[in-house]
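Give me the fold.
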Amino acid sequence: MSDTTGGTGGAGGTGGTGRRAYEGRSITVTFEAGRCRHAAECVRGLPEVFDTARRPWIRPDAAEAGRVAEVVRRCPSGALRYERADEGEGRASPPPTGAADPE
């Protein structure tokens, strides 16, 4: 597993986005610090993966990739995103608006 910075640019390689990638075997989780609202959905959802007292604080391989993706989708700010090796990119989605299916 590696902890890499996303984007391009100067020292740290973040290119101003503040986005970091945490790569696991089956899933890579990215975190954009500037978007985070510290709701702690991730920490409460999977403390074995998201632990702010540890470095790196995100360890994608500490849980099954599907569970990690599920918790990332709960992120209310969209600061967390994921990419599964077998499915592609995903991110937190806004809650449904309550509109009924048009069937």
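Residues 1-15, 92-103 have pLDDT under 50 and may be disordered.
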